[in-house]
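This part of the workshop introduces the protein records we will be handling. Getting from the letters to the tokens is the skill we practise here. The record below serves as our worked example for the rest of this section.

…
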Amino acid sequence: MTANIAHQGLDVDHLLSDRGYINSSLVDEVLARRGTIVCKPWKSRKGSLFPKSAFTINLRTRTIACPDGHVQGFALGTVVEFDPDVCDRCALRAQYITAAFSRGRFVVIAENEPLQQRLRKQIQTFAGRQALRERSMIEHKLAHISQRQGNHARYLGINTSTFDLRRASAIQNLETLHRSEVYLLIYTSGESSNIKSAPTCRINGMCSDTIGTLLIHGRHSSSFATVTEGAPGMVE
């Protein structure tokens, strides 16, 4: 995906990403350009125990403090274990860990922990949650592409499968553009009552599948292909 974007001379400054792809090199490139990343942070699945968000992480001093105030140093990309002797005597031990005594609580510190901390703060604000809603539109479009293609690859090989994905994505983009034009025409003509029956599968009398295929082979294909090919890696 990054190679295709670079081939067109484009830069991504606002990235809507799925947290499963947050370790992508594209994310690092966007951050290096001081761009914005819109993504949900990773979740800590500890059941009824204290989640990771209950611990205070100080990235400047590289320390992590448990809810009871005990501090431990850490390095990015490592697993921190709190002192077992301290954990054994802690009154809140039952809320920390279910393992046997002489074992301390483990906390995973990600390689991209600074970004994860930023995303956790972002999701706690109204503006941050509002930005995450942008992804819902992309999710709907991806669902349409999935319905069009099915659950299995039609062809063998990465290049051929990527081409098929671009074909389906181009068709989806064309249908969306056409639908917008039809809605605009109906709205401006005052026939808003007929908006539900507006045609959505043909453009200037040509089947949208045919136009999508032509665009993929034509000079305008790159603008459609890059955006849609990157969509599975940029959204959840």
In short: Residues 52-131 form one domain. The first strand starts at residue 14 and ends at 16.
